[in-house]
Design a protein that fits this description.
Mean pLDDT: 92
Number of strands: 8
Distance between the termini: 14 Å
Strand order of the largest sheet: 2-3-1-4
CATH superfamily of the largest domain: bacterial protein sp0830 like
Low-confidence stretches: none
CATH class of the largest domain: Alpha Beta
CATH topology of the largest domain: Alpha-Beta Plaits
Structural class: alpha+beta
Amino acid sequence: MVAFLRAVNVGGHVVTMEDLRRHFAKAGAKNVETFIASGNVIFDWPSDSLASAGAKIEDGLRKALGYEVKTFVRSAAEVTEVARYRPFPQPDMKAATVVTVGFLAEPLVAAATKTLMSFRSDMDDFHVHGREVYWLCRVRQSESPFFKVPFEKRVNVRVTFRNMNTIQRMVRKYDWT
């Protein structure tokens, strides 16, 4: 399984990857590894229940750290599907400055998808697929008008974003192909 953490090191808090692995193990995870020190944790869980893993880890982190660290858990197969998925035409993907995937707590409802799509522009394009949102940015993300949009407030769903290259590197490293 993979946990994508949002806001683990925020507001002056610093959690080392060693501490993060220890907190996961205390919550019941086995074979815990972190990937590129940015809140990506690969682990085994005693059951196949993604929901129970996410809830238990999130609760354990909140108790240990004293603040909420939203946790988005996916199976290795789901992460592999994200890495292989092509949300935009290949020429657009190659020409983009960056393609980012947002891991959602739950799929977007139709109204939220409509709101997201209202942010499409010459700089930004979006695609929704299951519990993921894909953002194609043709400029540096910090230059995009969408960069400053309070995404979660607009669509009413929790999310954490990762660069698509990071996801693809993760799948290659762990040989989930």
